[in-house]
Amino acid sequence: MSISMESENKTAPLSPVATRQNMREWLLSPEPKSPFQARLGRLYLNWRAFARNPLAMVGLAIIIMLVTTAIFADFIAPTSPVAGGDLRTARLLAPSAQHWFGTDEQARDIFSRIVHGSRITLWIVLLVTIITTPIGLLIGTVSGYFGGWLDSVLMRLTDICLAFPRLVLALALVAALGPGIENAVIAIALTSWPPYARLARAETLTIRKNDYISAIRLQGASDTRIIFRHVVPLCISSVIVRVTLDMAGIILTAAGLGFLGLGAQPPAPEWGLMIAAGRNYLLEHWWVAAMPGLAIFVVSLGFNLLGDGLRDVLDPKAAR
Amino acid sequence: MTAPLLELDGLHVDFHLRSGTVHAVRGLSFTLGRERLGIVGESGSGKSQTGRAILGLTPPPGHVTAKKMTFDGIDLLNANKETWRKLRGRRLTMVMQDPKYSLNPIMTIGDQIMETFRSHVKASRSEARDKAIEMLEAVQIRDPGRVFSLYPHEVSGGMGQRAMIAMMLVTDPDLFIADEITSALDVTVQMEVLHILDELVAERGMGLIFISHDLKLVSSFCDRVLVMYGGRVMEELSASQLGNAQHPYTQGLLKCLPTLDNASRPLPVLTRDPEWLA
Amino acid sequence: MSDGILKMLEVDNLAVTYGSGRLINHAVKKVSFQVEQGEAYGLVGESGSGKSTILRAICGLAPVSGGTMRLNGAPVTSPRDQNFHRSVQMVFQDPYGSLHPRHTVDRVLSEPMAIHGLDSRNDRIVQALAEVGLGPTFRFRFPHQLSGGQRQRVAIARALILEPKLLLLDEPTSALDASVQAEILNLLDDLRRKRGLTYILVSHDLAVVSYLCNRLLVMRNGDAIEELTTDRLREGSASSDYTRTLLSASHGFARRGSHVPNARATG
To answer: Does the model's pTM come out above 0.90?
Structure first.
């Protein structure tokens, strides 16, 4: 189905304002002419609702900044994150015009390290999301939909993973597979999916009772079709909101693991690792630990605000 | 010539939403004495919002304006919290559709009636308890002592609705608003509840506003009927004159219902004249 | 009743029981009835009578604990097969709960065809919408952009798109305004005559049942009380007291002096 702007019947050349007006009318049309138009229209309305919340926009701005910094790190960072300057003169310099965030004990520019560290942070966030969200959704919906012994088994599995101490698992993985960011991520992911499974299961239990599920069952739909095409689309919004809100915790956990030396290894500019290194210089050279700490704080805040904003838009009951 | 109990002139209830303003009630006027007034309308006609506006319970972002809105001479439009506390639940009460949602689920029925009574009238616990039992008897609950200690989820819909009526009548109000009180009940239970309400209203000489979507039921129960559509009154008539309804909306509403007596098909469909919304 | 023609549906001593032990609930207790092809059969009762449960049991949505059912002479298999789904469909009571909130009308109508591998879907969708009185402008709307009556029309279109022979209607108009109810009842009546469908209609409203159906079964607390024709119902000649109580209640409120049901509560 093609979008036809000419359907508005305006023959004169369109000014930018008029084009935008047409686009808006097209998106908000109460009688959409294609599934594409219908879906875009809904997205547009959701976006408008989201954009009305100033804090949510701040959160979005922070996340966009994070992503941009990570992508363009090479261009933004003034110096290399791993090569240090002269160890005799450039160590532990205070923030100045030359070194915006100062230098650390290896005479490396902290600002550059933070900029490059954003890549690692983003990488961790993406990996954890990609692993935990599908697992949580699948286990939760299957458990809630079928009930019975399958539900019991899956929920006990969930309980076990929930009870597992994250740090101990990380230590075990490091001992078995060697230290590194990927192993830290796996440790975090394997212990983070249970809440999403529980959430998805709770939603599925409510959704299952509705007549539209009975109707599609009566039309001969297989359980797979019902779960993936009818139940999951309804669970996804609350899971997305929960994941966004948990992001802050994930970043902090990764930083914590880095702090303990279980995640990223030196000289990687991982923010948690930087805080660990700066610990020794806290009293006189506070910026070495404080700057990466500030970065973690800002990014966590961004995810929290984004998650809150998303929840207000996607879950109308919670918006009050 | 008794002074009117309730006077409404030019009542407007507007909801200012981001997508535009919804005019739920547009210029409603009537006076009510100690009689039974029925307000009939379909969904979106503004009938429930009228009831809530009278009690000052319009939910935000609703906005109530009127030229005049008085209850027994007291101005309701500009009433402060103190005035409302003296009126609501005491002289002006309302019962809504589903007792599942209007009764407190974690208090026994008796406790709720007692609480209502004691918040308006100075009484000791035993006096309040006696009054509650008396009210439960008045709504023809055969074993009031037992029902007193039951929780709302332990009683049927009809019983819950009777308990709600008992609770709302315990302070002997002057005006009683019933908002679709029988719509969630089975038809035989509906008749029982209405009979009880009928006797109590007659005994106590209360004013009654009966809000419903069921035109026939309202006209068989009330003295006067207001037919609402799109926030306006389409027609006001006395219940006995229903057969001579003049307005096409009222006539359409009467004709479009299937009845046991009439087997003609197809059912006449109500054609909505956009003029009615003007 | 000629024995040569197969009955559309035969229900024999159907029982549906939920729960066990102390919480056991006999929703339907040994109910039997038969529905002829092309007829409209009503199930009438108040809440808790088991009428909706019977419909669900027919569809396989409620657990059957006893009795048998035969569709067109053949016993109904459990789980229901695709042939059953092509023959029997249902319209649900709540128009706000029977359509998936994230699916457009087009999706709602095309999915059953995708499941059963039907072709010329576009034409069928357009035709289905036209038959229920909705134009093509409704095709890509979401349920929240439709009124109650429009949603119910979509639900009817969905039920009919697989061209079933038996349509189960679970209080299809009780959640609708009176004026909209009249339109939907006319539509249902019209569709039945045009397509030669068989209906089983569940309702608490005697007037609605008498409008659409020719025979009805009165139920109470899971038991079948009485079966009678609409004509007899209209005459008021019911044999059981309960049916008579329902009839008098349906005539509306009558002050003391006229016939009045016993108003004493039994706790």
So the answer is: no
